[in-house]
Design a protein that fits this description.
Shape: elongated
CATH superfamily of the largest domain: Response regulator
Low-confidence stretches: none
Strand content: 15-25%
Bound molecules: iron/sulfur cluster
CATH class of the largest domain: Alpha Beta
CATH topology of the largest domain: Rossmann fold
Radius of gyration: 22 Å
Largest sheet: 4 strands, parallel
Number of strands: 8
CATH architecture of the largest domain: 3-Layer(aba) Sandwich
Structural class: alpha/beta
Order of helices and strands: EHHEHHEHEEEHHEE
Number of helices: 7
Distance between the termini: 33 Å
Strand order of the largest sheet: 2-1-3-4
Mean pLDDT: 90
């Protein structure tokens, strides 16, 4: 931040608000902190969802005068939100958050990482429990030798993902470990990600 004097703040009214990293309260606290540090805050906005590029662009237009006065935009949201903003302005954009994962909502304010979006899903084989994400080693064919009493050697508080898979398959009377799962096709998870899905046109392709 030291390279920039005037700052425009952007928060997100969705996940970042619930996680208490980018809602009104945090934007206000960040503003106070920046001003104490000698920065000028030219304005702020809280987007409904910072990841929504079209809405981000609209709000950026609405706040264009305050943004024009700023040297930089500081975004308190996930990386997807920060990139929406970057795409909609020529000003430098900084992020104030270090996001960890894309989470399922367990209940209000509680998120759980269940899918790593690997592009080659094996949930049909694993009773709907993802070992790529929830096994510490991402194993595809059963537990490692470190499993003890059903718990993971990496975190003894966590049930072993493969024990959970085994128990659920058994409960559903499905074949347990009936075949060897082939190594995953990681070529489908290419980077940089170029996936583009347009629900309106039905287009589902690479950019
Ligand atoms: S295998 Fe796991 S990480 Fe891959 S798409 Fe399925 S749920 Fe997501
Ligand atoms: S104990 Fe189970 S969850 Fe932990 S790393 Fe080994 S197989 Fe994966």
């Amino acid at each position: 931040m030291k390279d920039y004097q005037a700052v425009f703040l952007v928060g997100c009214g969705s996940c970042a608000t619930v996680c208490k990293v980018g809602g009104e309260e945090e934007v206000f606290a960040t503003q106070e902190w920046l001003e104490e540090c000698g920065h000028e805050v030219t304005g702020s906005m809280i987007l409904d969802e910072a990841c929504h590029i079209m809405r981000a662009a609209r709000e950026i237009r609405r706040f264009r005068d305050q943004i024009a006065d700023a040297d930089v935009l500081l975004v308190l949201s996930c990386g997807a939100g920060a990139q929406s903003i970057s795409d909609c302005t020529d000003k430098p954009v900084l992020t104030g958050v270090d996001p960890l994962f894309l989470g399922n909502v367990r209940r209000f304010g509680q998120y759980e990482e269940k899918c790593s979006l690997c592009g080659d899903c094996i949930l049909n084989e694993t009773a709907g429990i993802c070992p790529v994400t929830t096994c510490a080693k991402g194993l595809l064919n059963g537990p490692c030798g470190g499993m003890e009493d059903g718990y993971c050697e990496v975190d003894r508080q966590q049930q072993c993902a493969w024990v959970r898979i085994y128990q659920r398959l058994e409960k559903q009377q499905r074949g347990v470990f009936s075949r060897v799962v082939e190594p995953k096709d990681w070529s489908r998870k290419f980077k940089p990600g170029k996936h583009f899905i347009d629900r309106c046109s039905g287009k589902n392709s690479d950019l």
